[in-house]
Amino acid sequence: MQLIRVFSVLSLAAGGLACGPLHAHDAEHEVVARDTLKIAPGPSDTQIQFAPVPSIVDPAPIDPTLGYFVGDLGGGVHWVTEGAYSNMFLVSTHGVIVVDAPPTIGRKLLYAIGNTTHLPVTHLVYSHFHADHIGGASLFNASHPTIIAHAETLSLLSSLSPRDPLRPLPHVTFQGNYTLRVGNQTLELSYHGPNHAPGNLFMYAPAQRVALLIDVVFPGWAPFSELGISTFIPGWTAAHDVLLTFDFDVFVAGHVSRLGTKDDVLLQKKYIEDMHDSCAAAINGGFDVSAAIGPTIAANPGNTWAEFKAYLRVAAQTCADNTTSRWLGVLGAVDVFAFESAYRMIESLRVESDVLGPFGVS
Asked: What is the DSSP string of 62-98?
């Protein structure tokens, strides 16, 4: 049975799924024009005028000559950013602990450390296995640091064939919690299940009240595409609450050129809750399904994948539009990846949280 028939039967039985129905022509035009997962050509992002970013984004003052910024967080803790990525390092009495090595910062990280201390890098901690955060790890090969990561990170890096020489395998791994002590510095590492990626760590410097969590909260900004390209959205969402249990003043987020605070975590948490509810509402009757997918069915007879993609695209666009209308000017760039993140949330609700709308138990 074609999807249009399924939706029609459900609409009649429930008194109609529509809530603010879309006309078929208008819905398809909107999807093609704004959906970056296109099945038909649309305008490129270079032709789109996005909303101005609000002052909350508050970027660090990066010296154009150096190309990076180093911030002193006190007690030997420093963070580094080149504008898009960030990481941190801790200077102890016995050596330097580096957390992550983003390749976009690259050798600038060596300069930042070298201009701060003459002590060698003795330890390198991987937040998780993604190359955009640890792809510069081989730059520290000369100092032979002890590399520490969660066991999942070792497993995933080991599974690569061929192995990536730019991401040396960790020497020390753990499952739950690990306390790293080097000289007078302490860094607490903990794992609370998969979120952005399996093995993604929470890190905390208790003496300086500094936390680090990568690819979950984007201070001042809406999350990157597809909710930070996260693999397990329920765990990613829950990570906000886990982070709030730490007694920190600032945290390093891994992206954007500013630090975060607990207020930033709470603000993004509200944004994600709003997107969650908006996407659930879209699935549960937020648009006229028959009208939305009718043109695709007519143009692609017998192509179930095309029919279902049309449904997912309109559901995601409905959620994205509703969420964006409430958050423009509150967080930076909420309109840039609104569709991609809503699409990811729609899929998460369907397969990870059992919010199935017209595809529930019949």
From this structure: -BTTTTBEEEEEETTEEEEESSSBEEEEEE-SS-EEE
Cis before 234 (ω within 30)? no
Over the stretch 214-230, which tens digit does the pLDDT of each residue have?
Answer: 999 999 999 999 999 99
Residue 210 exposure: Cα atoms within 13 Å on the Cβ side: 23
Q: In what order do the strands lie in the sheet with 86-91?
A: 69-74, 77-81, 86-91, 96-99, 121-125, 146-150, 172-174
The pair of structure tokens assigned to 61 is: 């003052």
A 10 A CB-CB count for 5 gives 11
Kindly report the length of the chain: 362
Write out the H or E segment, with its range, that includes residue 151.
helix 151-158
CA dihedral sign of residues 253, 257, 260, 263:
negative
Domains parsed from the chain with CATH numbers: 3-53+273-359 (no CATH), 59-257 (3.60.15.10)
Spell out, as residue ranges, where the chain has pLDDT lower than 70. 1-46
Give the predicted TM-score (pTM) of the model: 0.87
Question: 17 and 358 in contact (C-beta within 8 Å)?
Answer: yes
Burial class (CB in 10 A: 0-12, 13-18, 19+), 300: middle
Cβ atoms of 131 and 160 closer than 8 Å: no
117 vs 137: CA distance, rounded Å: 19
- Give kind and range of the element (H or E) at residue 173: strand 172-174
- CA 136 – CA 157 distance, rounded (Å): 14
Cβ atoms of 352 and 234 within 8 Å: the answer is yes
DSSP letters spanning 329-346? TTBBTTTTSHHHHHHHHH
